Task: structure prediction
Amino acid sequence: MPQVEKDKRPDPDILLSQIEADERKQKRGKLKIFFGSSAGVGKTYAMLQEAHRRQREGADVLVGIVETHGRQETLQLLEGLPILPRRSLSHRNVTMSEFDIDEVLKIRPDILLLDELAHSNAPGSRHPKRWQDVEELIQAGIDVYTTLNVQHLESLNDVISSITGISVRETVPDRLFDEADNIVLVDTPPDELLARLRDGKVYIAPGANERSVQNFFRKTNLQSLRELALRRTADYVDIDSDEQRRREGLRTPNAVGEKIMVCVGSDAFAAKLVRTGRRLATGLKSPWLVTYVETPVAEAQDLRSRQHIQHVLHNAETNGAEVVTLTGTRVGDELINYARNNGITKIVIGKSGKPYWASIFKKNLAEFIVTESGDIDVYIVTTPAALSVAFNRRRVMPMSRHEGMRYGYAAILVSAITFGAYQTEFFFTNMDTIMLYLIGVMVTAAGLGRGPSLLYSVLCVSAFNFFFTEPRFTFNVYDSSYWLTFTVMFLTSVTISSLATKLRDQLMLARRREHETQIFYNLTRELTATRTREEMSETVIRRISQTIGGDICIWYPGKKGMLELVYGSETGDFFKEEVVADWCYKNGQPAGLGTNTMPSACLYYLPVTGTNMTLGVVGIRPKNDIFLHGQALIMETFVSLLGSALERSETAEAAEQAGLLAEKERVRNILLSSVSHDLRSPLAAITGAADTLLQEPHDTNSETAQRLLRSIRHEAARLTKVVSNLLEITRIEGGRLKLNVHPYFPPEIIGSAAESCRETLKNHKLLLKSLQDIPFVNMDGLLISQVIQNLLENATSHTPPGTEITVFADMYNNGLRISVSDNGPGIPPGQEREIFKKFATFDQGDRPKGAGLGLAICQAIVSAHMGRIYAETNRTGGARFVIELPSELTIPELS
Amino acid sequence: MTDKARILVVEDEPEIRRFLETALQAQGYVVESADNGALALKICKGRPPNLLILDLGLPDMDGQDIIASLRDWSQMPVIILSARNQEEEKVQALEKGADDYLTKPFGTAELMARIRVALRHAARRQAAASMSYSYKDLTLDLERRRVLLLGEEVHLTPTEYSLLAALVRKAGQVVTQKELLMEVWGKNAEENDHYLRIYIQRLRQKLTDDPLYPQYIFTEPGIGYRMSEEKEALDG
Result:
């Protein structure tokens, strides 16, 4: 049996990820790039030919954008292909026609042709770049054919600008190229291309500088570009075959676990570092990540650098890097720790072009990393000094007034100490003066920051030299030992100030973290207390406006799944951006301001996501249209908290529904058992009595016969009551309880109720009483009369014959109060509330029980009158039922 | 009991029909029965009975329609049978011309009392209307419009008097609120049933009739009022 080579067996994890990737690709459309070294090589031509071929095969081909540049051969090829009408966009009074992505998504062709992948869309389009349109189309399952020149590839941007001297602004992330399903290299030898150029067959943008065009189309340039294009295509083929090999379980070359970390700062150099990192990662075929350390100093940076670093990080992300933002005061430590903990094998870092002296006091970050990196390889990329300086110069901001004042305070403190020490010189030695100065250092360092304390150090050494050392009032010193004093003084003050500053920075950071934690904690706590979607949204909006401010809106899907604006702050016009919110909702991705999707929108839209669906969209327009430090993160956290809260409430609602169902089920079961008992027992008694009468013919006047007949009569009455109560509760519960409210005279109601149950009450003593001047009261007389009847019947069935039952009507807080009390055995303690529940009957020996519905009916009727009914034990120990109707129902003027 | 009164029982439930037949025959009435509306109307037209006991829920016709068509040509007393909680149905039937109602289930005593009153009223209609009413301490002289309580004259306003008179004319039978309102206040007062309750209260006060323990005027919740039956009738 041949031995299976263990190593060659495909790793299940790799296979699984392969399958997942394949599945993703199956649902996605396919991207085919016609790739060339420069304009004029015939990419569009090749693309159109391919399109025709596919059309003949039966594919549904649509021309999105094809630039013919007036060339006949291309124009001819367009014939027979359906062309998508362009959408006109007006931006600042200029109307431009642009590619209409929505229409394509509506038409859903099999294949869409979209020339010039690197094209930048007109402002106001959904995505700023055409390649982003392409990504969306592929995501939507549409195959896309497109064209691309080598100089537009992001990673080759630097190289090409150095070769041709022309910098290209419109770039396409390499990710797109590498992940394309097909690359077709359209190759034309430079000589032939130059010949075509001479024949005017190569499109040159009108108004282009003729000299630069000539510069570009030099044979050497064209050769280099061709070489790059060929190499890049070869790289692609390489990646492609690697994938194939991996699938087949074969080892791929270079497949060692390399992981690259690119460390960037907020300087202009960051973009270059990212490009270098990418090239390295592609070469090594390894994952890579870009790290940026946020420091308290960074917090004070101006908007420009913040925007810059955000842009760089975003760019890295689109190029396939994992972006990591770390927070801390010591950049080097943070980086090294992260690298160690995350299995980084290579670090790419820039060496700043700072002058040599700047690194005397502070170790260069690159050097620090090199020292601390251990077995991690470090690649140092040198910054062109000019670039760094130029950028730094731009970054120098005018000193704020506040900043200036702090330097002023440092100077004032030195002067004050100097003046004080000078005045009291008689009592002090120079040593004491130095001590005084050092105290001042601590005060400055703790309170005023690094710059002012450095100034303080310089000033205090100078002042000491000037005022306290011989010869006085000069900077000369006779005693050379003072130089040591000066040096120690200076170093001490610098050290103290740097330590104190660091401490202050850490404190600030800790405070900020604590503040953020507090914010999230508060929100979480508040959200826990809310129940409805409206309350939750309100809470989150309030918190967002407190912490970030600006215009906020919230959209939720309404009926038919269409988004509806649920909340919008007063200042904004949110409806015009409905499209953006809608896109965000449907794609579950952030959109609008600061994103790649419709960045010209005024607001930044975040989807509110639950575990497996988007629940809504939150839009925000931060002040000055940019998120300050950490705000984006806060915002994201807020929105995700809202998402989980919404989901929780939905779950709770579902549980409540389930609970209600269970309750209904329970009641139904009780109903069945209770009804079957209450119906069967009187029926059994009637049947039994009737049988006895039939079997042994009695004289109907005999005592036995009379007893049996009375029993039949009594049981029948009981049965009647059960049935009518059941009907009544069904009527009430079916929502058919409609009050017919009119002014009634309470004693009349009581009198008629007592009259109706005269038969039932004949074995009890009934006492009816009423307040002398009781007013007319608005009520449904019929229903209230029924309540009294039910209470009377309840009293007769739970008390022995001869018991006294008293009905009393009086006023209570201007409302009507009717009580029905008896001097019977009373209600079992603790049952006063229970007895109003449906089918509640308490055990009272063998006394007949009702179906336990009478009191429930009373409660329903009284509640419908906005009144209340309760039971208690009265002074005699018997039961007392009280009905209270609210004072609003009383109408005194009628009586 | 005067001659043998003929009573037609219209009821589709055989058990109840049998019970009614037995009970009525035991009281000396001649009983005929019908289990549907068409047959009932046919019997009424052929040989009109002295009284009709009508169940409102019949298989072929609405009881209300039977009353309406009967009232086109006959004044024979009609007592309807109906279930509890169907006050509206009862009021409707009474307004269409039924004389009284019984709520199922009912006792024999109650049924006999209603029949007696209904037959007596019918007899009076055919002779001349009685011009006086007397029960317990109350005496009413309809001819002279005088009300006496323990022999003392009670002073009533015209409205109070006409209300009392309307009740007395149908003493022992229920009078619907609407009937009273129309008779006392005229057609436009139909909706103002609280007037009625206020005047009933004043009337009770003047007649020293305690609403908690009424002797003369009884309230039928949701339907109307019933004046107690005359003493002599009870005796008879």
